[in-house]
Amino acid sequence: MERGPFESRHPLVGLVDETIRLNSRLRSVFAAARQESALNDSEQMVLNAVVEAEKAPTVAQIGRSMGQARQLVQRAANSLRDGGLIETLDNPDHKRAPLLCATEQGLALKRAIDARADAIAEDLLPAAEIESVREATLVLRALRRKLEAQLRRR
């Protein structure tokens, strides 16, 4: 294991640093997948959140989940709605916080972006390493969910 001058830091702090660095690197590598869509980073984030959600989310839920300001998510959601990529649905739990749902056009765009991203990933990562990436994804997802649950309890 690689050790650096900050090895005394809490492991979670080191993970934050590595995650930020990895996020920057991956965003630059995968920018080409989104290039034809004309979506900006915020719009891409919101479209992904809506399509990948287990149930239709609200703007506030996406903001909390992604660590983004509600206003930023709202602007992106408005743009996606105006572009016909998402629609709002009545929320039985909250009159002023509609649920967000992808339209067929939004789903088709997400699939096209994902297909281009898959092609980039195939070129980038040897097949022998796919299982380790899958395992890392599961570990990170589990950690994120634990942190989210703990934050909700606060």
TrEMBL record:
Pfam families for the chain: MarR_2 (PF12802)
Residue span(s) of domain HTH marR-type: 12-148
This protein's name: HTH marR-type domain-containing protein
Species, as recorded: Novosphingobium indicum
